[in-house]
Amino acid sequence: MSASQLAPVFFAAAVVILLTCRSVSFVFTRLGQPAVVGEMIAGVLLGPSVFGLLAPGLSNRLFPAELRPVLYVVGQIGLAALMFHAGYEFRRHAGRGLVGSALAISAAGVLVPLLGGVLLTLGAAGRVDLFVPGVPVAVTAAFVAVALAITAFPMLARIITERGMSGTRHGSLSLAAGATDDVVAWVLLAGVLSVAAGRVRPILLAVGGGVVFVLVVVFVVRRLLAWYLARPGASAESRLLVTITVLFAGAWFTDAIGLYSVFGAFCVGMAMPPGESADQVVHSTHGVTRILFLPMFFTYSGLQTRFDLFAQPAVLIFGVAAVGVAVVGKFGGCWLAARLRGEPNATALRIGALMNARGLMQLIALNIGLQAGIVSGQLFAALVLVALVTTTMTAPILSWLDRRDIDAEVLRTSRPARTARSA
Question: What is the pLDDT of residues 65-106, one digit of tens each?
């Protein structure tokens, strides 16, 4: 298919993707879920498990194989913009005095799911058809462990902002721990890919390049952005242009060293100076790109997901077991760490619920593993199930905790009144 033939196909697919994502998101927001959860579900609906099953001919014409790389690249723009916004929000809302608790929660949120993922995958070896021929079981086990250890930081930040939890103790701790979790997870993922490729260079490049990148962002990029955004003569268009150029440069560099564009975009977002000019640039970048480009990534992921593979009982059992291990490891591990650090139970439960969401970040990792040839279709589907379940359960748990606290407060305040009347 030539470029001139591909262009109208892309525009037709884009119309379907945007309308489907918006419609499904509308329904899910009415159910108390963030809009991005609806977009995740919409991506699966447009894939072979639903649309491809109901109208295979139309699905193939609308989403031909030649279109998928285009959807992936366009989706990366939406991801970079989302992580840029998440980094900016993190810097704005991160509180002080959180380092000890945040590190403890982050460590538990990584180590416990890692251990659970390794044990689950080793137990499935030889029993479930999940493994790519020629890929060592240890590599698959390590990948599953990293995938279960990931936290969906962009979604976490969005939930915290939408629910007005930015200034709360549990919101600030979750942001700090979630950001740390994802940085560690990307480094571990680079290590898994290095082992799978049989080379040490990728992990050395990721770690060394990551250190250099952070130093450049802290000592150069941060000052450059602060200087330019504060220039009296700079127009809104020029501020936006400079910021997007820096953002794309950071995304390119971290992608090239194996930490992937989302890490670079997040760091550039953290480097943005506070102020009205930065707010305008960040929200201008986030608004259009998120609405237009991020749904393309969810659709690309959905096109790789085949839930008909769950017709194999062993694969379904593994998927359900993976959900259980993921929830116990991340929710339970983070809750326990918060309690051991002296946090109240209500705070610890909310931290566990927020950290348990994997959503977007796990989808990114799964697509990387699929492209690297170390993830099979069966394993991809099972771990997409983990991403969907752990993400959709976050909002209902938080709402239940809020209602429980309100009921407890009403009961507590009504007791003195009853006591006075009885006296």
Answer: 899 889 988 988 888 887 788 778 767 655 556 678 888 999
Q: How far apart are CA 375 and CA 372, in angstroms?
A: 8
The predicted-structure confidence for 123-168, as pLDDT tens digits, reads as follows 998 888 888 888 889 999 999 999 999 887 767 776 776 777 766 7
64 Cβ neighbours under 8 A, 6+ residues apart: 1, 9
Residue 321: CB atoms within 10 A of its CB come to: 17
Topology at the third CATH level for domain 70-391: Na+/H+ antiporter like fold (1.20.1530)
Report domain extents, the chain: 70-391
